[in-house]
Design a protein that fits this description.
This protein is 38% helix and 32% strand. The chain is globular. A three-stranded antiparallel β-sheet has the order 1-2-3. It is built from three helices and three strands. It has one domain. It is an alpha+beta fold.
C-alpha cells in the first residue's frame, strides 16, 4: 500500500492534489507492474497551506474515508505519515486527538 498524490493544474495557475491509497501488484498475464486505487481520501490545493480551516476539513474527511477501508494499523500509520509530509495537520486537531477527542 502507498499514497498517491495526483497533481492537477487549475485554470488560475494553482495546483490541486488528489490523494488516493493504492496497491501495487504484477499483472498475471504480462508480468507488468500495476497499481490499483483502493480508496480516495480527498483533494487539497496548494493555496490551502495557509488556511487551517481548509486543512482541518481535509483531515476530517480523510480520517472518515480511511476508517472505512479495511487496512491494517501498520498500513494506516504509513499512510498518515505520507500525508503529513504534504499536508500539515492543524494544531487544533493534534490537541484534540491527544485528549482522546475526535473532531467530527
Amino acid at each position: 500500500m502507498f499514497v498517491r498524490f495526483r497533481k492537477y493544474e487549475l485554470s488560475n495557475g494553482f495546483k490541486s492534489y488528489r490523494v488516493e491509497v493504492a496497491k501495487s501488484y504484477r499483472d498475471a498475464l504480462s508480468g507488468e507492474p500495476r497499481n490499483k486505487v483502493v480508496g480516495y481520501l480527498g483533494t487539497f490545493h496548494d493555496v490551502w497551506s495557509f488556511s487551517s480551516y481548509r486543512r482541518l476539513d481535509f483531515w476530517r474527511k480523510a480520517e472518515q474515508r480511511l476508517s472505512k477501508l479495511s487496512l491494517t494499523e501498520g498500513d494506516k500509520s504509513k499512510i498518515w505519515a505520507a500525508i503529513e509530509k504534504r499536508v500539515q495537520r492543524p494544531v487544533m486537531i493534534l490537541a484534540l486527538t491527544k485528549r482522546g477527542i475526535h473532531a467530527a
